[in-house]
Amino acid sequence: MPAWGGGGSMIISHKHKFIFIKTRKTSGTSMEISLSQFCGYDDIITPITYEDELVRQDLGGRLPQNYGDPREEQYRDHIRARKMNPRRVRHMGRYYNHIPAVEVRKHIGDDIWNEYFKFSIERHPYDTVVSHIHFHARKKNHWNFETELKRTLKKGYFVSHPVYSEGEKPIIDFVLNYEQLHRDLETLSDKLGFDVAAHYPRTKHKHRSDRRPARELLSPVARQEIYERCHVAFDSMGFER
Question: Domain of 34?
């Protein structure tokens, strides 16, 4: 049996003329599951994890489609049958996990890019770093915060702005603030013409046991490094240092 996997993706809706660009650890999977319930047959929906695909299916959302992998229909059949090999491999579509906005624009062309409403979600980089630490340590019985912090800083997945920017300039229309998500979901719903929040599930929120503010968990040196690497997000979103 073939195996598939996915961690993050994007949606282009020709039906509603919007493009969702997904960042990491920002409730993006919940956003995708919600949006997919309003998508049409011709819209582009890239894969998420198999477990989250089952959530999407149970809530009536459209499954991955039109993202350019010749195995798409077979993948959907396995989801519908709730049978999947647990091994993970990369999807080989034209549109893929965490594809940056500049590449989406290249694929769809300037006319559609300029016409459609483009949005993403950003989270305070301190919180993003801590979320990555707890997510990657979730299956470890014993782990050290500082060791995992060094690993996270080295990997750099917490740096989100390249996904929705060209260089250091955001090129999308709206970036939702994760810390004020309820408010910004209302703004987004008004723009799209349907209630995004009403269909918004909670996913991947059980990995962090230490609920102290991220600022308290990070040293001044770590905070400075995070700021220097994420200054675009700090400046454009008005995040406090």
Answer: 1-122+173-206
Residues 52 and 106 in one domain: yes
Name the 3-class secondary structure at 169. strand
Residue 197 vs residues 22, 78, 110, 185, 227: alpha-carbon distances, Å: 17, 28, 30, 6, 31
Query: Per-residue pLDDT for the chain (241 aa), expressed as one digit of tens each?
Result: 333 334 457 999 999 999 999 999 999 999 999 999 999 999 999 998 888 999 999 999 999 999 998 889 988 998 999 987 645 445 567 887 778 999 999 999 999 999 999 999 999 999 999 999 998 888 888 899 999 999 999 999 999 999 999 999 999 999 999 999 999 999 999 999 999 998 888 765 555 566 789 999 999 999 999 999 999 999 999 999 9
Asked, for residue 166, whether it belongs to a domain, the answer is: no
Q: In this structure, are 89 and 195 located in the same domain?
A: yes
The answer as to whether 151 is a domain residue is yes
